What we know:
Blueprint: H1 5-17, E1 19-27, E2 36-45, E3 48-56, H2 65-71, H3 75-81, H4 85-96, E4 100-104, H5 107-120, E5 130-134, H6 135-142, H7 151-157, H8 168-183
Parallel strand pairs: 1-4, 4-5
Antiparallel strand pairs: 1-2, 2-3
Helix pairs in contact: 6-8
Amino acid sequence: MRISETNLEKFRQYATGGRVVVFDTETTGCSRWDEICRIAAAEYVRGELSRTLALYVCPTCEMNPWSEGVHGLSVDFLSEHGLAPEEAMRQFFEFLGSDALLVAHNNKFDMRMLNQECGKFDLCFAPDGIETCDTLALARHLRPGLDSYSLANLIEELNIDGTNSHDALDDILACAGVFFALLS
């Protein structure tokens, strides 16, 4: 996504006077055959944290060992604690609602995984009034010249209280901190 002055103003309006939903996914891998195994979201209304959602999802595919090493979620754990993919997506879409700015760090990946999940399980993802913002693109635009635009580096650069643990809930809270710091 290209960041323009119009987009920046729109993002600032959402940040100060609207509804922002920050989300993150953990997945079984990065291919078109992989699935979401954890999804988390945090809703901010007029810049204040309102509520959170964090769900484990029981995948119907194999777990890539590299992915399990990153987020620590095993198929056995997810089989015991995870929701069916259709139920998890239903809860996420209900949480998201409409008329919000949907924010993620490197949102191309998370949006691709959401759309992929919807296609695989014959779900519809067409929320009304949803705009998107990628904190990776936002940081590159507002803070040119950084050595790294990883979430972990941005937390440090912007002196954000948070951690990039590859747990979706931790990551959304850190991403929200980055989003609001960049726009302040």
